[in-house]
Amino acid sequence: xxxxxxxxxxxxxxxxxxxxxxxxxxxxxxxxxxxxxxxxxxxxxxxxxxxxxxxxxxxxxxxxxxxxxxxxxxxxxxxxxxxxxxxxxxxxxxxxxxxxxxxxxxxxxxxxxxxxxxxxxxxxxxxxxxxxxxxxxxxxxxxxxxxxxxxxxxxxxxxxxxxxxxxxxxxxxxxxxxxxxxxxxxxxxxxxxxxxxxxxxxxxxxxxxxxxxxxxxxxxxxxxxxxxxxxxxxxxxxxxxxxxxx
Length: 246
Known about the structure:
The protein is an alpha/beta fold. Helix content is 37%, strand content 18%. The chain has one domain (8-238): Carbamate kinase (3-Layer(aba) Sandwich), CATH 3.40.1160. It is globular.
């Protein structure tokens, strides 16, 4: 393997990606495959931080209406779901002898460290994988926004958005429309103008303001992350410089 293009990355994994074909929860085979890919990234000498969603357990906005909850309360439950996923991923990574720390935006001293920016950076510099849990710690913000925020805070060189069986950004939902066109490259502004739902507006604005490119890719492809880290064409590049690979 050649020298990785990026030295520090933020990997955003959707909760749905952990389900695979299940309707709820975490698929054991999938979480082990995820852990192996994270181990491979670290073994390349890349510093890796992770934000994992909670949609496989609880989706705040959708469930708040169904349960008669206000959105703020439902979002807090969603933050707890991200913590559950983070702790499971930590446990699996430990089985692969990967040093890992969970930093939570919500204070839970018995199970995770409190999020402190400089502490997170120090863990990364020591070669530890860092998992950020609890979203931003505030309701009304998605885990996409939490990922963009943490990427900005730790000075990540790129944000990798892992999707479930969707390899990039399309003008329509490729799972519903076979005529959907894939973008190899798209600007931050065009994501907003075209109202593409692959990432929320607050998150893309944060990435734009802090000059963090985003790569959207299918996490089911075992070779995808390696290609991205080598600077090869994979998925869709949002923002950044449109280099020869894209």
